[in-house]
Amino acid sequence: MEANNINPEFLAHIEAALDQIRPYLHADGGDVKVLEVTPEMVLKLEMVGACGSCPMSAMTLKAGVEQAILKAIPEIKAVEAVNLTPMALV
User: Fold this and answer.
1) How is 11-31 classified by DSSP, letter by letter?
2) Residue 1 counted as domain residue
3) Residue range of the domain that includes 68
4) Would 2 be classed as within a structural domain?
5) pTM assigned to the model
6) In a 3-state reduction of DSSP, which class is residue 88?
């Protein structure tokens, strides 16, 4: 895992929250990878597999991934994907 600057215990908590939504991502051939948590407590993720190019990735990120994280880890203020395609941002 390439997660930078994240305490291993905190990273495990993030991964546990993501594991709650991963079965849905996997069902469509996708996943997410934790990259970093900024000093402002923004979790940066990479959408991988089918999620990396899906036009619905922005909705999946906000309605699924971000909600799962914010519910489980209130310290996180926002979740951003670093690689959403321009099509996904429309």
Assistant:
1) HHHHHHHHHTTHHHHHHTTEE
2) no
3) 8-89
4) no
5) 0.83
6) helix
What distance in Å separates the CA atoms of residue 56 and residue 13, rounded to the nearest whole number?
26
Please name the residues in contact with 31: beta carbons below 8 A apart, sequence gap of 6 or more.
Answer: 22, 25, 47, 48, 49, 51
For 7-32, the pLDDT digits (tens) are 899 999 999 999 999 998 898 888 99
Q: Which amino acid is at 36?
A: E
Q: Where are the alpha helices (DSSP H) in the chain?
A: 8-19, 22-27, 57-59, 67-72
> Nearest-CA neighbor of 10 among 84, 74, 86, 80?
74
> Residue 30 domain-assigned?
yes
Q: Is 25 exposed, middle or buried (0-12, 13-18, 19+ CB in 10 A)?
A: buried
